[in-house]
Structure formats: C-alpha cells, structure tokens
Recover the amino acids of this structure.
C-alpha cells in the first residue's frame, strides 16, 4: 500500500468514526436504482415554506437551512438545480418531531424494549451518570429526504435522518448542515 493510499484510508476511517460519534442516525436506501438513471438536474417538488408573521414553529426556521444544506451537498456532487419543468428528478422532504425518552421507539410490537433488572449487578458511577444524563424526554427532529421521478411520481431514492433539530428553542444551521451531509453521504457524484 502506498503512503498516499494509507493516509487516505486513515482519513476515511477517522471521518467514519466521527460520523459514528455524532449521534445522527441515517438510514439511506440503496443508491443503485437512482445511480442507474444517470440524472444530473433537479428541482424542488414543493415551494419553500412562507413564514407569515412571527412563529415559533421550528420547521419554518429550519426550511431555508434544510434546502441550503441539500443544495450545497448536491452542488458539491455535481448535480444542478434547474427550473422545475427542466428537472430530471424532484426533491421533497418531510420533517417530523418525535419524542425519545431513552427507550427504543416502537409502534406495533409485542416485545418490550424497556430495560430490565439484572440480578447481582452493581451499578457503577458511569452507569448512574449516564442514567441521569439520558433520562427524561428528548425531542428529536427527524427528516426524510426523497428523490422523486417527476413523470412517474415514484421514489428513486430516500434517506431518513435523525437529530436534524435538537434544540426546542432554536435551530442550529451547523447541526442541520451536518445532519444533511451525513444523510446524503452515500449519494454518487453526478456523471
């Protein structure tokens, strides 16, 4: 292995570890279907949210940040933002809040993922500290980004991203950018 390829491998592993420690969970679809289309130009499927008056709704605060972050990342990959009638694919996103109280999110399961007592287990200081730090309800901002074929209205690719908006009082543009960058990390460059 050459020195340069070794350095690239070390840098790639470092970025992977940093992404793993970020707490952002991304669940991307396989990109092969989207990559096979060879599409290079896109447009937004819906118009930006229009804020009328003062609102505390974080989605209205986050909408321009989400759009900028997606456009920035796609631009880096060589995709071009065009008028909707000239677009080869459309982008849509859905944002939703959810509550995470330290347990796995379940909707229709008969298996209870709650922590259970373990006999003869002494709680150490780190476990107690983690229990305090992670206890209580945490609000999570989740995002689903979908690429849609405008002629067939079928989904070509999508990714689910957690922890886009973490603060109940404001939206951090750097957190949004980081989450979107992680979510779109599996996309191939435009041809």
């Amino acid at each position: 292995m050459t020195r340069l390829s070794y350095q690239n491998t070390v840098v790639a592993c470092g970025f992977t570890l940093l992404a793993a420690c970020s707490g952002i969970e991304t669940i991307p679809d396989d990109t092969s279907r989207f990559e096979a289309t060879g599409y290079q130009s896109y447009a937004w499927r819906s118009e930006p949210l229009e804020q009328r008056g003062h609102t505390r709704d974080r989605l209205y605060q986050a909408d321009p940040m989400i759009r900028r972050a997606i456009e920035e990342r796609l631009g880096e990959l060589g995709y071009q933002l065009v008028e909707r009638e000239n677009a080869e694919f459309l982008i849509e996103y859905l944002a939703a809040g959810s509550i995470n109280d330290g347990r796995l999110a379940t909707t229709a399961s008969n298996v209870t993922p709650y922590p259970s007592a373990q006999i003869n287990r002494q709680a150490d200081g780190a476990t107690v500290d983690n229990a305090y730090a992670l206890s209580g309800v945490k609000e999570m901002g989740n995002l689903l980004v979908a690429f849609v074929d405008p002629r067939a209205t079928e989904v070509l690719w999508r990714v689910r991203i957690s922890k886009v908006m973490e603060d109940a009082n404001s939206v951090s543009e750097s957190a949004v950018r980081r989450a979107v960058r992680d979510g779109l990390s599996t996309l191939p460059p435009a041809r």
Strands lie at 26-28, 41-44, 80-81, 89-100, 138-148, 155-165. The chain has a mean pLDDT of 74.
